[in-house]
Amino acid sequence: MRWVNQRISRTNGLMMGVLPILALILLYLVLAGERHAVNPADKILPMPGQMVDAMTALVAERDPLSGRYLFWADTWASLQRLLLGLGISTASALLVGLVLGVLPPVRAAFGMLVTGIAVIPPIALLPILFIAFGLGETAKVALIVVGIAPFMIRDIAGHIGSLPREQIVKAQTLGASTWQLMLRVALPQSMPRLIQAVRLSLGPAWVFLISAEAIAADVGLGYRIFLVRRYLAMDVILPYVAWIALLAVVLDFLLVQASRRGFRWAHGENR
To answer: SS3 for the chain, per residue?
Structure first.
């Protein structure tokens, strides 16, 4: 049987997905062991015990200055910024995308503007955002919104604009108004695509968040990574990067489950 025709069960798929991760961990342990055999004080590839010791102080011990558990404070601060940025971007994409997708005059008037904003590198706007909104939370959230909302708007508008014309004609034949077309025809079919757009935006959203926190923050995952890099503290940086990856995977999993449970028809599943 050709590989392209093979069907992988969920259990086998999970096992096959875990194997490369285990191989990567094993490769790291081998390389770290070799480096420490040559130089026991090596800081570039810390051993697992070193990472556990370094993270214990951040996870389970209060900071003497702030009185906070730094790891959990960093996680909470970053998640707040990320989820707020994703929420604003999702609402904007749904509202603006519906209007642009359903109404050709609006798409003709503002489609080029949205495209122009979407192609601007968001990091280049970071100084402007800090000048306009200051160094507080608003600028950090705004960078996430500016970075991912235009892409999501274009995607939703394009998806709605490509809906079969027959659906629009049939709805109008039955007396549907413009608002009813948006709410009864376009909106339900755009929701699975919206969740997919959020999933695709998770990676860029993390990039923009970490960039903003690295420049102007006093708490956050990105702030902590860039704070300890001056000491070559890879025993903190690597666990933080792994934690960010785990959070991203969990968010992606939750979005997939929400899409499958709420819109089974979009995944070829029967109710």
So the answer is: CCHHHCCCCHHHHHHHHHHHHHHHHHHHHHHHHHHHHHCCCCCCCCCHHHHHHHHHHHHHCCCCCCCCCHHHHHHHHHHHHHHHHHHHHHHHHHHHHHHHHHCHHHHHHHHHHHHHHHCCCHHHHHHHHHHHHCCCHHHHHHHHHHHHHHHHHHHHHHHHHCCCHHHHHHHHHCCCCHHHHHHHHHHHHHHHHHHHHHHHHHHHHHHHHHHHHHHCCCCCHHHHHHHHHHHCCHHHHHHHHHHHHHHHHHHHHHHHHHHHHHCHHHHCCCC
